Amino acid sequence: MKTYLMSFAVITILFFTLVFQTLAANKPPEKGEQLPVMTLPIPKNPEERTYLGLSGSGSFKIQQIKAKVVIIEIFSMYCPYCQKDAPGVNELYRLIENNPETKNKIKLIGIGAGNSSYEVEVFKKTYNVPFPLFPDKDFTIHKACGEVRTPYFMVVKLNDDGTHQIVHTQLGEYPGAQPFFELVLKVSGLK
Length: 191
Hints:
This protein is an alpha/beta fold. The protein has helices spanning 2-25, 46-52, 80-98, 117-126, 140-144, 177-188, and strands at 39-41, 59-61, 69-75, 106-113, 133-136, 152-158, 164-171. The strands form two sheets. Strands 5-4-3-6-7 form a five-stranded mixed beta sheet. Strands 1-2 form a two-stranded antiparallel sheet.
């Protein structure tokens, strides 16, 4: 009986250890943390490559984007909130690009959770998205980001020494272009 209880206790401890490790591994990135590894294809579109400060072909990591701050939107073409927010996020892009203080310092990208290249292109054309969008057909990035709901925003500060830090995360509730722009300036230290 004692052996049975001891075995049961060990199995129970192992089970809960595995459950808690799995839950911890699936949490969204938080302020102060580094991004999970995200490998994206270098855009074929030359304007998008120039916008991101990239050249050649192959793949890149977020830290290679030539900017001080990168705003990442995890979206899905099937998400009604992403569709509703698309014009406002486009306006955020225009605010950044039309401001000489932020034009080359803040970059915006979108990652389509579960979306193929075709689906990302449909979203881009339907909503006239002016910034680069990337497919995540197999949910690799989405899973690495804790399987967040969409839209999910991450503001990442890129440091001169090659390190980076998440300075803001936000699920939904897009407040509009101007308030979000002000928030990005504040949390990134660009203001």
